[in-house]
Amino acid sequence: MVTVTAETVSATDAANALAFERLTSADPWVVDVRPAREVIPGYTDDLVLTSGAPMPWSEYTGGQREALIGGALFEGLAGTREEAIAGFEDGSIKVGACHDYGAVGSLAGIYTASMPVFVVENRTHGNIGFCNFYEGKEPRRLNYGCYDEGVHERLLHVNEVLAPVVGEAIRRRGGVALKPLIARALRMGDEVHSRNAAASVLFNREILPAILDMIEQGVPNVRETMLHLAENDYFFLRLSMAAAKASADAMKGVEGSTLVTAMAFSCRGFAIKVAGLGDQWFEGPPPLHQGKLFAGHTEDEITWMGGESPITETVGLGGFAQACALSLQEYQGGSPEVMIERNKEMYEITQGENPAYRIPLFSFRGTPTGVDVRKVLATGILPVMDVGLAGRDGGQIGAGVIRAPRECFEDALAAFEALPGRH
Length: 423
Prior knowledge:
- The protein is α+β, with helices and mostly antiparallel strands.
- It contains 14 helices and 16 strands.
- Helix content is about 35%, strand content about 20%.
- InterPro entries: AllG-like, OXTCase_su_AllG_h-dom.
């Protein structure tokens, strides 16, 4: 029988205070855009990354499996669907988990070696987070389990046209500080998960001086790239995800801490990591969800094919800043009253209030930040996340909120309490 003493509780509180300080003192800057093979440590040409806790190829199903196959085809690792499947089966094409490489991916989260990634450096602690590029607002996207000629052409356009221009602008600016930009976007109606309209505009403004110089110098594709950024309000999501990853990873390895460092899901289910438990994943069933579907779609179409954008909630954004973005009710359903109360609930399960990210509606109270496994179980309140909803036939069919399952928190606390010195 595990006995938790006052001394161990006090030690955990101290560890959580340290982890919280490391998280909230993080200073994420986007410093570059490069192909994954050039900047992600250990990345090989035969590797395809996807979202969620790592699994063998045989366990990937539905849209997430289709997205992996599409990634292999796009990268030229196979010439046909059948060849891609055979490659995954015999190991000549490798599948990996994004988080194992310091990366995060939206929905299926597919990375291949040639795909451009944002490089975000935490200048306080020195760690780096990566996120791949936004494909555009077309509902049929690789990260939503779709691969066809149109998806292929859009991915090539990102690789060859958009990413080089954005990367050059970022380098010319000496990097862009993301934390103050995110803080301002919260005051302008974003929560930088399901709503990124203000943050995208602010980022465009940050790179504008470099963009004007590039136009004067005749750099190709600049006008086209800026028009793409201007019409895609979700562009900034990948930057907020990379910033959150670089910030959350600063908590990793804080011995004795019960704060969550990652939340993600795959086609198999939901999973979390905990600061004091290293890189171990604790898994549960798929998340609980409520949502609003696009016209022509029904509830029975909803499927899970992965998702690591809840890294934003891990650092006090997204659903933990929902009261900043009441306009989301039109997109994902609900009401202002429900969104406000849901946001307030999150203070009951977190370590503290974020000193940088504040909610105007709550008299500029800091967002609830640092999910504590112990508080989730003690209160019965499950973390809430804003997400896009995928359909079983691929593509986005709606948006809504999800709640993490209780089981992964139960398993994490059991593992924590079984550590040497805990009893």
